[in-house]
Amino acid sequence: MVHVFVSGCYDILHAGHVQFFREAKALGTHLTVSFASSECAANTARASPARKSAPQSQDQPYNPHSPIS
What we know:
This protein is an alpha+beta fold. 30% of the residues lie in helices and 17% in strands. It contains two helices and two strands; from the N terminus they run E-H-E-H.
């Protein structure tokens, strides 16, 4: 059994994050995702105001109910 752990500031969950989780899950048999606190996310945003979100695919919109496999 291989456990994969990822952590980040996922303040706005989008299709790029879901793809990242799918790719991380493919590396093992168990995926644990750690979400940073709101305070940490706010500090990151202030430190890097030019940070941009990955574009969401228009042909495959994000579905929060789709399983991560």
